[in-house]
Amino acid sequence: MGFKTDGSSHAGGVKNEKELRTRLIKDRPLAEAFVPILQDGAHYEVNHLGGTKEKADLELVTKTATKRLSIKKKEDINTGSFDWINSTAPCSRDPRFADLRELCKSFQRGKQPNKEEKAAATRTVTAALTEKILLLESDDIIDILDTHVVKPYQTIDLIMINDVINHNLYGFSPNALPFFKYMHGLHREAFMLPKPGKKSAAVIFKDWAGQEFDFGVRLRCETNNGIRAMFGGRPKGKNNSSSPTIKIQQDNVKGLLESIKENDLTTWSYKG
Length: 272
Description:
Layout: H1 8-26, H2 28-34, E1 45-48, E2 58-61, E3 66-74, E4 82-87, H3 89-92, H4 98-106, H5 115-135, H6 138-150, E5 158-163, E6 168-172, H7 178-183, E7 189-194, E8 200-206, E9 212-213, E10 217-223, H8 226-231, E11 244-250, H9 253-258, E12 266-269
Parallel strand pairs: 3-5
Antiparallel strand pairs: 1-2, 2-3, 4-11, 5-6, 6-12, 7-8, 8-9, 8-10, 10-11
């Protein structure tokens, strides 16, 4: 499946967040299972935050505390991935991506491309994005993950995954994940495991003794609005620019859940 640039993934995620907000409000036992401070009978509200710059999607608020929740939607935890970040922010000012920013701007001409021009631009941009993945060194990878995933998620109290097909909710603290535990350690070393011609690669980590760890983290380099938007000249209401984007994904979601210690994972089955 290609990288979606039509906003449908974001719209589906927002719908899931709002539905889960309603479920938390109406089903107090469910809310108490994931947020134990409610077990004393405290009154609570659940607010939808939203926004692409906000890591928290929901806030559960009592008189004495606020719990920030990050919501992930999975049609089925046995397949696919979810996003830790999907944003132009890592590329917008970082000098490591200056060449990609200039490349994306170089196609702007206020007129849509013909078939051949689009194909040539696609080849050029794909090659540049693929090369960028290959050129990232260990310090670069660790810095990107630390700045745009680990540190922002320290403001999150609970990650909830909605397994839609199987009607299961899973909840855990970011710090319960082996990936986050590793990133909080003293020795941090990583390398990319790319496949030829791909704009993404699995991130493999090493400890001080050289042992390797695959936490299911994938780094993808894309453009946010696709090739046609780079040229401009699209109808009003359509994007007329496109910028380099970093997407950090979590593959093997089932394995992620299995890696969490039993006491750190809350599971709740619900009716569809």
